[in-house]
Specification:
It is a single chain. With about 425 residues, this protein is of the alpha/beta class. The chain is built from 13 helices and 14 strands. The protein is globular. The two termini are about 20 Å apart. The chain binds nicotinamide-adenine-dinucleotide. The site of nicotinamide-adenine-dinucleotide has 30 residues, from α3 and α9.
Length: about 425
């Protein structure tokens, strides 16, 4: 453990004893003090939404790349800058109640868990975590710290997804027999990798060591990882599945009240030891619920241009499947929920027009929940198990052709114990995550 980290943990412990944020939350009168980690890209978009809430005051902006503060400074000038979130936590102390985490996926859990241990409320981007084990830790720590949390899959609160969820729960197409979900992307340019990218000088503005964080040291390579292109790399992102399944599976989980899958099986094309596949199909079997026709329900994920057979949709010949979304096959019809647009019901002649459910501002819902001391509908209690299922898909994709049995209670894969190492990852010395007890 390096000195910064040791002194940080010391200061964290002091902050927990002195200022548990959920106590402060009960007394929040005029402002909610929010700090941000990851200030450009999606982070900028997130903080503009969070900052548009009249009760939010930003107290700290952290980015490992100091060249990336331009956007936030233009919108919210005068907020303190930090390049290391641990320093920000330590120096701000009780001057932040809540944290927005919008870094690449490999750092979500490390940063959010530290914040929650301090009693800070957390808005964390999707996928909630990089691994199955981390998703479990996030759920446990949020419950232990009694903090208000939300995952950044903002379409959860959108009118389109809410309308789809209501139609399904109202039984408009009857009980559901199977679900097919897809996203057309082939990743972001680094799938089908044949050689590691050539290393190059680290930009002066970037703390590359802090960007790597929990990950093993590797050379910086221009235009390969930072910004945005980290997604395809197993060490940093989750490929197309990691990028989109926390969005696209969200209404499937909410509508059908899915829990942990029983089995997962993947087939893919173009997997290598560094980057995620070019295309894949991941088949889950979940226990049935009050909304499913059978005792179990198959849910199948496709990406990289793969899609379900269009004949399943019972659509007119002139219609095509959307580029991304879900197809619910019910006992009395089919519902297609595009990502993201209003649901479609087939066969068309069987269904009348439906009422839309109003949407809400996902970001403000979290701020309001913190202020009011209520939990959100997309808290880590919900988003943790959803992310576990998504990342189990990525475990299966790294063991293609094998059906994995999943025991969620013990976090074991009894029929393929050698695959269990993929439930977690190697953490760099000084960046290890302690299990929540
Ligand atoms: N909800 C959505 O619709 C949506 C859309 C895009 C991205 N995302 C998610 O947002 C997150 C960020 O994605 P992006 O496309 O903006 O990535 P990006 O690489 O473009 O931007 C990440 C930002 O965080 C900074 N950063 C990286 N590591 C950091 C660290 N350890 N501490 C502080 N700052 C750090 C980078 O310098 C950069 O400014 C990802 O988890 C991604 O999945 C969500």
């Amino acid at each position: 453990m390096n000195t910064t980290r040791r002194s940080f943990i010391k200061s964290s412990a002091a902050a927990v004893l002195g200022f548990p944020a959920f106590v402060r939350a009960a007394n929040l009168n005029s402002t909610l003090q929010v700090a941000v980690v990851g200030c450009s890209g999606q982070g900028l978009s997130d903080l503009m939404q969070i900052g548009s809430h009249p009760k939010v005051k930003f107290t700290g902006f952290c980015d490992v790349d100091t060249a990336r503060f331009g956007g936030v400074d233009a919108k919210f000038p005068g907020v303190a800058h930090f390049q290391d979130f641990r320093e920000m936590f330590s120096l701000l102390g009780d001057k932040f109640d809540a944290l927005q985490v919008s870094t690449p996926d490999h750092m979500h859990a490390f940063i959010s868990l530290d914040a929650m241990r301090l009693g800070k409320h957390v808005y964390c981007q999707k996928p909630l975590t990089h691994t199955v084990w981390e998703a479990r830790q996030m759920r446990l720590q949020a419950a232990k710290s009694k903090v208000i949390t939300q995952m950044g899959n903002q379409i959860h609160s959108d009118s389109t997804y809410r309308t789809g969820v209501k139609l399904l729960r109202d039984g408009v197409i009857g009980k559901i027999k199977e679900v097919h979900s897809w996203q057309g992307n082939h990743g972001n340019g680094n799938t089908r990798l044949t050689a590691l990218p050539p290393s190059g000088p680290v930009p002066e503005s970037l703390n590359w060591d802090a960007w790597l964080g929990v990950a093993a040291l590797r050379d910086f390579a221009p235009d390969a990882y930072h910004p945005f292109k980290w997604r395809d790399w197993q060490e940093f992102g989750g490929g197309t599945m990691g990028d989109f399944a926390c969005h696209i599976f969200d209404p499937v989980f909410t509508a059908l009240e899915l829990t942990a899958p029983l089995t997962i099986h993947a087939e893919n094309e173009g997997l290598n030891s560094q980057t995620w596949p070019f295309a894949e199909t991941i088949s889950y079997l979940f226990p049935g619920t009050a909304f499913t026709a059978g005792k179990t329900i198959p849910v199948i994920w496709y990406d990289g241009g793969r899609k379900p057979d269009i004949s399943l949709a019972q659509m007119p010949a002139d219609k095509v499947l959307p580029s991304a979304g879900s197809l619910f096959i019910g006992e009395g019809g089919v519902l297609i929920l595009p990502h993201y647009a209003m649901p479609q019901l087939y066969p068309q002649e069987k269904f009348e027009a439906f009422n839309k459910v109003a949407g809400a501002n996902h970001y403000h819902a979290w701020v309001d929940a913190v202020i009011e001391g209520k939990q959100t509908t997309d808290s880590f209690e919900y988003a943790g198990p959803l992310t576990e299922a998504v990342q189990l898909g990525n475990v299966a994709t790294r063991t293609p052709g094998v059906t994995l049995q999943w025991d969620a209670a013990t976090m074991r894969i009894p029929n393929q114990p050698e695959a269990e190492r993929l439930l977690t990852k190697q953490y760099r010395e000084g960046w290890k995550i302690a299990a929540v007890e």
